[in-house]
Each structure stands twice: as structure tokens, then as C-alpha cells.
Amino acid sequence: MDKSSSSGEGQKDVSACQSKVGSFRLTKWDRIRLSTDFRRIIKEGARYRTPNFQLRLLRNLLGRTRLGLVVGRKAGNACARNRIKRRLREYFRLNRGKMPPETDMVFIALKGAATLDTYRLMSELDEFIRTKF
After folding, report:
1. pLDDT tens for residues 48-72?
2. Where are the domains of the chain?
3. Phi, psi of 67 (to 5 degrees)
4. Cα–Cα distances in angstroms (integers) from residue 15 to residues 18, 19, 20, 122, in the given order
5. DSSP, res 12
6. What is the C-alpha separation between 27 and 128, in angstroms, rounded?
7. Closest Cα partner for 104 from 52, 53, 46, 54?
8. Long-range CB contacts (< 8 A, 24+ apart) of 121-129?
9. Per residue in 2-25, pLDDT tens?
């Protein structure tokens, strides 16, 4: 008897689903999720500024670099805020290796961040990473 599902796809090999792409994933462990962590990082972290973002960086003992995002209503309407967050997550996901290891990073979007296109956002953050680290 054929070991196929009702959809006709057949049996799937689990090992085929595992690849090197997993290292680029942004898991819940890569994000700062607790408000107490956000408060601690914003209060104690080193402060940096780009034209459209404030950044707070604080070393952690977790063995990984984590990302936190603060995008308030001053940055734009809901659509613009969500777009900024998607772009920042994507930048972090692709450039994690360039960032300081074992560091919590909180990006705070300023008023002009909503007007940035993807290329300008990436180049602004690349310039920041290149000059500071």
C-alpha cells in the first residue's frame, strides 16, 4: 500500500526540510519581548543615533544578539509602522553577523523613519554598523 496522504503529496522526508537557511531565521529567542528587558536596555544601554533612529545597545549573557523594536505613533500610521518593523527585522536577520555578539539592540524609530524606502534604510544602518563596530 502506498504511504501517501489524501492530498497525493506522498511521504515527506524530514531531513529535506532542514538546511543552512535556518541560521537566517528570526526566532522568538532572537527578539526582546519583555517590557522589563526593554526598560533596562533603554535605561542602561549605550545610546547611538542615526538620522531616523535611536539605538540602545547593552551586552547580555545569553550568547546571542537580540533585537527589540519601538515604533510609536509619531513614526506614522499603522501601515507605516508595520512597514518599518518589517524592514528592521529583515535588516537584522540578514546582517546579524556584522553586529556585536551577545548584545541586546533596541531600535527606536523617529518621525522621519516612515519616509525611508528600503534602500535608504539599509544604507543608513549599514553606515552606522560600519562606523561603530
Report:
1. 999 999 999 999 999 899 999 999 9
2. 26-132
3. -120, 135
4. 5, 8, 12, 34
5. P
6. 24
7. 46
8. 121/52, 121/84, 121/87, 121/88, 121/91, 122/87, 122/91, 124/50, 124/51, 124/52, 124/53, 125/50, 125/53, 125/91, 125/95, 126/95, 127/50, 128/48, 128/50, 128/55, 129/95, 129/98, 129/99
9. 554 455 555 554 444 444 555 678
Q: What is the pTM of this model?
A: 0.79
Residue type, 116: L
Q: Tell me the pLDDT tens digit for each residue of 91-102.
A: 999 999 899 899
The class of domain 26-132 in CATH terms is alpha beta
| pLDDT tens string 71-91 | 999 999 999 999 999 999 999
